[in-house]
Amino acid sequence: MKRIFLAVFVLFLILKTSGQEKQKVKYLDSIQVNLKRSLDSILKNTPNELNTIILKQKLKEISPKKIKTEQLGWKTKAVYSLLFNQSAFNLDWQGGGTSNIAGNTALTFEFNYKRNNLVWDNKILSDYGLTFLKGENFARKTNDRIEFNSRLGQRIGQSFWNYSLFINFRSQFAKGYRFTKDPKTEETIRTEETHFFSPAFIQIGPGLLWKKSDNLNINIAPVTARIILVDKQFTNIEGYKDGDYFGVDTGKSSRFEFGGSLAAYNKFMVLKNVTVENLLNLYSNYIEDPANIDIDYTLTINLLVNKYITGSFVFQAIYDDNATTGFQIREVIGLGLKYQF
């Protein structure tokens, strides 16, 4: 037994010394192999097999952990999801309801660059959803968004603060309609109100970025230019007054604003396989009604059932007095497929 304790003591001293000298870490694997051979030789005549098992297990426990190095250069990530929702009622159902089927698809693509103190984050967000109601000849949109965010940051010293420059673009894929009822026939009538690039919002501005991690950051841009682009056909519609269509005057196709913006992002895990994402965007127009702050808040809760099946809950609230006088609310919940690559 003395030989066993002596071997353990020698092993401990050698590994402790090598751990203190970082330049010798790369030789640790070969040292362990030689130690294992020596120990096996020493213990080959030992009748207690349990001692051999303990020594080998000790070698595994004190093996140095590999140091994770941060990936530099380009890094990409894409997530695709497809959610379904369906409700059906027969003629004898007395509780009321309309049979419907709905689907929502989303694609998020990130391509980010990091080198020394320079960070360049890019993200494309795209969502589109439709619902088909029984008895109607056309589908209704449940979601329609295309958004591109690009942010360049230069770290200030060793702090979490960065000089930043951001660009944001938002629009939609397909036509949007206002639905009304014909008072005589009770049929649903739809009137086109929006389509691709009408409206389109473009924001750009320098500022300061506080970035603790990829999952927690705040960008403050006190000097932000915003351009709103629309199709002139909507501002020429009879009944529209100056500023009624996303703030654009009658007969015009664009509107320029100058103000300040704030964008905050936070993602965290509440339970195993359950993550919560919060995205908040604020904007104030210094030129006109600076106290009327535009708000765009999105809450996303993702439940990962397995590698390919996911559940999702999305809540979005938008306040923009140029578009409407109240909050615009969107809520989507469903179970579907998810693929990450």
Main β-sheet description: 12 strands, antiparallel, barrel
Helix content: 10-25%
Question: What Rg, in angstroms, do the CA atoms define?
Answer: 30 Å
**Class by alpha and beta content:** mainly beta
Q: What integer is the average pLDDT?
A: 84
CATH class of the largest domain: Mainly Beta
CATH topology of the largest domain: Outer membrane phospholipase (ompla), Chain C
Overall, the morphology is flat
Walk me through the structure.
The chain has four helices and 14 strands. It has 341 residues and is mainly β. The protein folds into two domains: 60 residues, no CATH class; 268 residues, Outer membrane phospholipase (ompla), Chain C (Beta Barrel). It has a twelve-stranded antiparallel β-barrel. A two-stranded antiparallel sheet has the order 6-7. Strand 3 and strand 4 form a beta hairpin. It is flat. It starts with a helix and ends with a strand.
